[in-house]
């Protein structure tokens, strides 16, 4: 029995070392750094307590980034999940060219986010972009989508949804393929329509997958910022600035590691609360068998 435990621990050891070295230890160091000032040259960091957190409450850029990220998450999370489910239902049916269609839906997932940002630049470029070219057919004026504070955040949203939906579709497609065929046949015999079967049978059976996708979508809403570097750099006037981009700029351009650490702890705290709430509240509504 002891040999089995040793064998299991040896198998887990590489993953445990990587997790400790690149996840848990840096997270603990970030929490500690958030209570100290930023060291400069020969001046070491000193303990400041919660001053870094109090400063965030007075930082207009941080508050604007939080608001932008809230809008970003509120739109990208449900949109990505709903579109992914619709695409999965569509490609789960029998039709000609199904393999090509699945590949087309999944292609954005394998593209680097930097490449995705460059692709969508051609769509949103004023006057010459594809969107404005289509608008010109209806005699509509050109629109500077990424230069207008009222529209720039939504251009970023579109890119994120386009990138994530295909990835989530794969999980939904795998879940749909596990639904037993006798259930469909029994539903037909009982006279249940497609909508009734979807609502009463399909949705409950794919709820574990939905919970998994929801957790990933929430994490992606604060993790994916590569397209911000390519498309907007957080502008104009911080209208598309997201939290992780603001943390990067604060830490590596302004070299204010104390404030960046405090913002990182805030994100980790919020994500932890959301994850706990999902697993303890939504998990009760999930049927695993």
Automatic annotation (TrEMBL):
Keywords: Cell membrane, Membrane, Transmembrane, Transmembrane helix, Transport. It is found in: Cell membrane. GO terms for cellular component: plasma membrane. InterPro entries: ABC_transporter_permease, MetI-like, MetI-like_sf. One of its GO terms (biological process) is transmembrane transport. Pfam families: BPD_transp_1 (PF00528). PROSITE patterns: ABC_TM1. The chain crosses the membrane at residues 70-91, 103-131, 151-176, 197-219, 260-282. It is a multi-pass membrane protein. Coiled coil: none annotated. Residues 66-275 form the ABC transmembrane type-1 domain. Belongs to the binding-protein-dependent transport system permease family. This is sn-glycerol 3-phosphate transport system permease protein.
């Amino acid at each position: 029995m002891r040999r089995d435990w040793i064998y299991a621990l040896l198998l887990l050891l590489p993953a445990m070392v990587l997790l400790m070295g690149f996840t848990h230890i840096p997270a603990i160091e970030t929490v500690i750094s958030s209570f100290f000032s930023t060291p400069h040259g020969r001046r070491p960091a000193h303990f400041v307590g919660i001053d870094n957190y109090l400063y965030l409450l007075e930082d207009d850029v941080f508050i604007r980034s939080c608001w932008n990220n809230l809008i970003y998450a509120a739109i990208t999370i449900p949109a990505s999940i709903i579109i992914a489910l619709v695409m999965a239902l569509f490609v789960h049916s029998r039709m000609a060219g199904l393999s090509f269609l699945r590949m087309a839906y999944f292609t954005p997932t394998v593209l680097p986010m930097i490449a995705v940002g460059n692709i969508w630049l051609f769509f949103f470029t004023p006057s010459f972009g594809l969107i404005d070219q289509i608008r010109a057919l209806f005699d509509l004026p050109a629109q500077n989508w990424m230069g207008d504070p009222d529209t720039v955040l939504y251009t970023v949203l579109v890119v994120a949804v386009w990138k994530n939906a295909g990835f989530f579709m794969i999980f939904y497609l795998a879940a749909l393929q596990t639904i037993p065929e006798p259930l469909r046949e029994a539903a037909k015999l009982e006279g249940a329509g497609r909508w009734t079967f979807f609502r009463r049978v399909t949705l409950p059976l794919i709820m574990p997958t939905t919970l998994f996708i929801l957790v990933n979508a929430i994490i992606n809403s604060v993790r994916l910022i590569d397209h911000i570097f390519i498309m907007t750099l957080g502008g104009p006037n911080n209208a598309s600035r997201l939290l992780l981009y603001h943390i990067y700029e604060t830490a590596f351009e302004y070299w204010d590691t104390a404030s960046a650490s405090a913002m990182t702890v805030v994100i980790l705290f919020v994500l932890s609360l959301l994850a706990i709430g999902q697993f303890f509240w939504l998990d009760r509504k999930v049927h695993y068998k």
